[in-house]
Structure formats: structure tokens, C-alpha cells
Amino acid sequence: MFLKSKEIHLKCTHCSQITAYQKASIVCPLCGGTILQAEYDLEELVHCHWKDKLSTRYPSLWRYHELLPLFDSNHIVTLGEGWTPLIQAQRFGKLIGLDYLYIKDERQNPTGSFKDRQASVTISVMKEQGIKEMVLASTGNVAISYSAYAARAGIKLWAFLSGLTPDEKIREIQLYGAEVVKVPGTYDQTKQVAAEFAQNQGIFLDSGLKSFTSGESMKTMALELGEQLHGQAPDWFIQGVSGAMGPIGVVKGFEEMMALGMVDKVPRLGMIQSSGCNPMVQAFEKGEREAIPVTDPKTAIATLATGNPGFAYSWLYDLMQKYGGAMEQATDAEAYTVTRLLAQTEGISVEPATAVAFAGLIKLAQRGIIQPQERVVINCSGHTYPVEEQILTEEFAPEASTQFKW
Amino acid sequence: MFLKSKEIHLKCTHCSQITAYQKASIVCPLCGGTILQAEYDLEELVHCHWKDKLSTRYPSLWRYHELLPLFDSNHIVTLGEGWTPLIQAQRFGKLIGLDYLYIKDERQNPTGSFKDRQASVTISVMKEQGIKEMVLASTGNVAISYSAYAARAGIKLWAFLSGLTPDEKIREIQLYGAEVVKVPGTYDQTKQVAAEFAQNQGIFLDSGLKSFTSGESMKTMALELGEQLHGQAPDWFIQGVSGAMGPIGVVKGFEEMMALGMVDKVPRLGMIQSSGCNPMVQAFEKGEREAIPVTDPKTAIATLATGNPGFAYSWLYDLMQKYGGAMEQATDAEAYTVTRLLAQTEGISVEPATAVAFAGLIKLAQRGIIQPQERVVINCSGHTYPVEEQILTEEFAPEASTQFKW
Which residue segment(s) compose the domain that B163 sits in? Predict the structure, then answer.
């Protein structure tokens, strides 16, 4: 109810046209551009008292509803996502030479990854817009998350999954009742197939960074960090990157908090890619603003196997020029080693894509790019969870060849 | 720092002797009894202002430190556990005829189950007591949770696992660096083997309900419910039961809140067991205070396969006589069916032991024992997560026969 009075505008990243956001306005009315960014009346918000009440609000990302693109709280589709713990990693930090390392534990979201932020905000906006059916392409985590929230909202979901998606993740997606289409190809090819299907069928396509709700959702990580660190932004924000939606959203969050007087700066970005799929790293090393796609990713880590980052890299590159930052890469083997090290020093078990970020962080510290005294926050993006394989196999995928074990 | 001034006493459940709790006092000095319950100076606390500040405190179970058995906050071993979301289940509730069904989403804990409460409180107390090594018996979830927190605290953990423990859970436990001992028998047999090992080696044994920290940790669920429901206790608290530690702790939490004027009542208990291992249900139906052990559990759901509940059942029985409640049971097949129903209506994916509780809830509603208008909270105790099987298999269990898939 409480959201109805706010004003939101959408700015086209192509022609800079600014339009009042209304239901169903998801393309630029001037040029047809599809990459829009939400803008809020920050001057109005800076004088409001909502900031003083923040600390007593319910700990989910929706506590920042003034800065989220929803008009009516009745449309919120939530599983309690966000406001994840910020955990100081003293033992692991000491091992790698960092005195103030903090882990933003995104594993503690409803489906175990930071994609739940995106699903909650996007599905809520879709509910507000009256959309009943949608298509997306995924390497696994996004589809798991969206299928959970779509089930909750009663929205039909078509999940197109790339060839690397593990069977366990596919079973989880099916459990939520989504329609699964396996594409025997790369993530980039899967996105293409999904887009064609959506267009042919006239179904709404959620296209990652191009859907303005994605960046809006990811920025809530920054809003939480500002509150958890009492207005002192970290010196560095570290994340494994594939499509770059996370860091782009996080920077927007810090920028908005700067405008609202809630933090003191925007952190530098430490962006880590898999060595087997590193188009951004290659371009960044050469100082280039455009990345050459990797057409044949050589990594087993599906979540990081985006060969063609497209405009997202250029966007990220510009932000890193403005606020500072560094790119690094890590091999799958390095990631697996770090998985064990992190579990045994901090009690934190992560999925391989997350381990790549930790492995890259070690290198940035070793290279002296990150200094021992700097405050570092790393996005601990997803969990290595035990699955009740027997159950899911027997009941939900009876055709699977896995042997039932008891 | 802030915890040092408080007074805690331990009451022996055998001889009722009350002793001031100090470091290392973990048995009754009068009779040697090992089942102790913590007591706090509630009369002092009722006049304090800490309750007014609760809503601004960090959302973890440690926000209730006045009611937890730790003296020095420097000993807290935390991964941000607790203060899990309370999610209203409107669609699933409507299907089963309940208007006010709330899911306490314990999946959103650091290792994905409510056992993280127990691990955080117990390992913190062990750290305070200077204990460096410990033994426990488990069917999986407790060992996963303890191994994570023990790793974080630098405590060596011996995990004795029953024969039903899934391989995925064992790998997760090994990832954290715990010593794993697989016992090819029931959970009751595993507990016996673990106890003998601990005694022979002179290592501290964590023995579930007998360790007073366990009940203390579980009661934090009640404290959170009191706060999340604004002082109105639910009419029912539902949980799948095996060792009964959860509900016994929860009742203690509501009792303390009653004494502190923070809630209006103690809820009735809806306790669900697996049909294949239902010693409590059998005894309760006959109105008996002692349960006859099930020596050969016939369920594939390890988490609920405690054949001999021992004194825990009598304790629970007394509480259910005092506050009201009902017992129910569900088969494995019923649990699997409910897993799908819950995922597709609410976007919540649960492990089989949790699904048993939901299946039993349906029966309690159908039988009219729970009325449509009553407020019901169910402990959504653990997650059905996808595991990155490939990684864990290849790196951490190279001897496993599972085929590497890409």
C-alpha cells in the first residue's frame, strides 16, 4: 500500500530519454531502446525521514522499497530474500594477507544464491504489470530462483538451460513446476534460442541486464552494505563476473546512497573471471572497452561461462575507469582448492563460481593491488549444498539412470 | 563484552538442584545428572530496557544474548544464523484449509537447516569453556552444521554418521575438515558407538538434548516468533520430531517470554513423525508417557529415524499435557508428494524430513484438530538443495563411483 505515491522515471541508456515509469512501459518510447535504468526522486528522498526508520524495518531487501521500482506493496512476491549476513573472515583473511575481509553471505537466500534478489524484484514487477507467463535463459541459478518465485506468484515460467547446467539443478527447477528446455549448447546460444522462442510465442522475455529490474535488485546488496558498515563503504567490492549485472547494480546502489548522504564513497571493483572464459579479462588487460567473445568456453563452471558479455562489459569498464578497480582470473582447479580452504577456515561452503571469486581475490592481494589494511567485501554468491539426490531422482526424474541407493 | 555481568543458573532435571553456571560446569554437582536446563534472572530482565532495543539489533539469534548461556561476546562463533524469515503461505494454506499458515523458513540458515542454531550456541559455549575437540553422532544435518562452526572456531570435530546418511551430506561434512566415522547401523547404534569412543578417548561428547546448550539454541526460534508476530504467539507450532529437541526448546522460549511479558501464551504442539519410525506416535495414541523403541526403522528419511527417543518423549509428553497438542505421522511417499505441492504453490523446496511435517499438518487440518482460523507456524527445518555433485565428487571423494559428467 505504502508505495503508491512515489515517482519513478526510466532513462534510456541508448538515447538518454527520460520517461515516467508506468505499468507496462518497458521499452524507451522515443528510440525503442530496451536497456533502461530506473531513476528515483533522490532530492525528495534525501529530506524524508525513512532513513531514520530503516534500522527497525524487517530485514529483507524490501526494507528499501523507496528505491525499488514497485508502486503497490501488495504486489511484492517475497520469500524473505536479502539482508544477508556480513561475516568477517578473520582466519581466511589472515591467510591471504587481508586484515578486514568481509563475506556478504548471499548463500543464505531462499534458493541459496544472490539471484533471489533479482527474482523477487523482477517477479514482483511482473505481477504488478499483469504478466502471467515468461521465458528466460539460464545456466542454473537464475532458473532455480525464478522458478521458485514464479511458482509463488502463479506465473508460468519457461526455463531454457545451457548444456553445462548440472542435472541436480535441472531437477530442482522441475520441482518448482517450471517448463524446462535443455539447449545442447553454450549459454550465449541458449539465450538466442530463448529469445526466438519468446518472440515467436509472444511471451515476455526476461533478458538479464536488459531488464531494468535486474540492476535494481542487485543494488540492494550495496544498500545493505551501507547499513551494515554504518555508512562506511568498503574499499573494494569483489565478485566473480559473467554477465556483470551484480557489480553494475551494486555501483548504482552506492551512487544513490552517495546522493542521499548515506555512504562516503563508491568502492573499487575487483572482478574475477574463470580462466577458461575470460573475455573481460582479456579486453581489460589491453585497456579496451569492447570485449571479443569467447566462442568455446573452457570451464566446467556453468555459472561463469558467458562467452559474450556484450555491452555489459563496456558498461562495467566505464564504471571501473570512474571508480577504480581490477580484473583477475582463476582456473577451475584453483577454485576447487580454495573451496576447501574457505570451508576449513571459515565454515563457509561455496559453489564453484563463488570459489573463483575467492581464488581471484587471493591473487589481487598477492599482487599488492589490494592492500592489507583495505576493507574488502566479497559477494559469496552461492552455496555448495547437499541435495537429497535419492528423493529428487526417484520421484521427480524417474527416467534418470542414477542408482537408487537404499 | 556486553554479556559478562549476567547471572545464569543450571537446574538439574533429575534432582532439581540449582547451581550457578560457571565455565566447565556441565554436570550437576549434587547428583551427577547430565540433563541440565539454563535459568536466567527473568525478574531482573523483565525490568530492563533491552526489550525496547530489540527491533534495532542485528538480525541473528544472538540479538537475544541476555537469554543465552554465554558470558563474553568475544566467544560468539557466528555465521549469521537465526532471524530467519516468517513467510505466510496463502496458496498452500488455502489448499489444505488453513487461513493463517506461516512458514518459519529455517532453510535460510548458513548450512541450510535449523541445526545451525544449535551449532552456533554450542560451539560458542565450547569456545568459552576452552574445549578444543569434540565428538557427535548424527544422521547428517547436525554434523554438517557442527563441522562448519567447528572449522570456523578451530575445534576438531569427530562426526559419527548413521548408515542412512546420504553420500552428498558426508562429502559436505568432509569438505569442512571434520573426521568422519561411518557406522553401518541405526542412529541409536551410532550414538552408542560415538559415546563409547568419546569416553575412551576422553573427548567432549555433544549429546543432543542432554547438552543444555541445545535446548537454549532451539528456543531462539520462539523468541523470534514472538517478535515477528508482535507478541501474539501462534495457536500451533508444527514440527517433524525425532529427538524432540526443537519443540522442547521452543516451549522453553515461549515460557520465558511469558515470564517477561513478551507473548500472550505458549502454543500447542503439532508433532509429526515418519510412519516408519513412530515410537512417539504409538505411545501418545495409547496415552502413555514412555515410548517403546522402534529397533528397525522403516523409513528412508535418515533425519527422522531415531528409534529410541528415551526421556525426550516423556519430557515432550508432559509439555503436551500442559499446553495441549497432537501427534501425527506421514509415510515417505506422502512426504514426497507434499514436497512437490509445496514447491509449486509457495516456491519453497524442502528436504524429506521437513516434508513429513507438512504432510502431517495436512492430516491435522483434515481431522479438524487444527481449525481453519487458527494461527499455525510450521518449522521449515531444511532445504532440498542442488549440490555441485561433480565438484565434490571429483575433488573430495575421488574414490566415489559416480561418473564425471562433462
Answer: 115-210
Residues of B in contact with A148 (CB under 8 A): 343, 347-349
* pLDDT at A405 > cutoff 60: no
Residues A43 and A142 in one domain: no
Judged by DSSP in three states, B406 sits in coil
Whether A298 has its CB under 8 Å from any CB of chain B: the answer is no
**Strand, helix or coil for residue B118:** helix
| Cβ-based contacts under 8 A for chains A and B | 210
Copy the grid coordinates of residue B89: 503461505
Q: Which of B108, B147, B385 sits opposite A80 (nearest CB)?
A: B108
A166 touches chain B (CB under 8 A): yes
Identify whether A386 is part of a domain. Answer: no
Residue A372 grid cell: 592489507
The answer to whether residues A91 and A60 belong to one domain is no
Q: Give residue B269's pLDDT.
A: 98
When CB atoms are compared, the residue of A56, A352, A395 closest to B55 is A56
pLDDT beyond 60 at B395: no
Do B217 and B323 reside in the same domain of the chain?
yes
B203 and B280 belong to one structural domain: no
Q: Are residues B245 and B287 in the same domain?
A: yes
Asked if the C-beta of B149 comes within 8 angstroms of chain A's C-beta atoms, the answer is: yes
Search chain B and give the residue with CA nearest A178: B344
Are residues A206 and A219 located together in one domain of the fold? no
Q: Chain B residues with CB inside 8 Å of A171's CB?
A: 386
CA distance A221 to A61: 8
B364-384 pLDDT, tens per residue? 999 999 999 999 999 999 887
Q: What is the mean pLDDT of chain A?
A: 89
Is pLDDT above 90 for A389? Answer: no
The mean pLDDT value for B41-47 works out to 87
Min Cα separation B216/chain A (Å): 22
Q: What is the CATH number of the domain that holds A142?
A: 3.40.50.1100
Inform me whether the pLDDT recorded for B158 exceeds 70. Answer: yes
Residues A59-87: pLDDT tens digits? Answer: 999 999 999 999 999 999 999 999 999 99
Residue A271 lies in a domain: yes
Residue indicated by cell numbers 547494480:
A249
Best mutation target, B57, B387, B403, B405, to test chain A (most A CBs within 10 A): B387
Min Cα separation A117/chain B (Å): 14
What's the average model confidence in pLDDT over A395-400? 32
Is A78 within a domain? no
Question: What secondary structure does DSSP assign to A172-209, as a single string?
Answer: HHHHTTPEEEE-SS-HHHHHHHHHHHHHHHT-EE--GG
> Would you say residue B393 lies in a domain?
no
Above 90 in pLDDT, residue B161?
yes
Mean pLDDT check: name the lowest of A111-120, A183-192, A195-204, B39-48.
Answer: B39-48
Number of structural domains in chain B = 3
* Cα angle, residue A193 at apex, residues A191 and A198 outer, rounded to 5°: 95
From B159, B181, B210, the end of a domain falls on B210
Given A79, A84, A154, which is nearest B87 (Cβ)?
A79
Q: Does B128 touch chain A (CB under 8 A)?
A: no
CA neighbor of A34 nearest in space, from A18, A63, A48, A14: A14
Higher pLDDT, A195 or A19: A195
Q: In this structure, are A307 and A159 located in the same domain?
A: no
Q: Which of A107, A151, A175 sits opposite B345 (nearest CB)?
A: A151
pLDDT at B389 exceeding the cut of 70: no
Give the three-state DSSP class for B19. strand
Q: Give yes or no for residue A398 having a pLDDT over 60.
A: no
pLDDT level of residue A401 (50, 70, 90 thresholds) = very low
Give yes or no: residues A133 and A263 share one domain. Answer: no
Binary contact (B154, A336; C-beta < 8 A): no
Phi-psi region of B405 (alpha: psi -120 to 50; beta: other; left: phi over 0): alpha
- What DSSP assignment string belongs to B152-205? HHT-EEEEEE-TT--HHHHHHHHHTTPEEEE-SS-HHHHHHHHHHHHHHHT-EE
Set of chain B residues whose Cβ sits within 8 Å of the Cβ of A115: none
Residue A400: pLDDT band (50, 70, 90) is very low
Of B187, B210, B233, the residue at which a domain comes to its end is: B210
Instruction: Indicate the residue of A86, A107, A390 with minimum beta-carbon distance to B300.
Output: A390
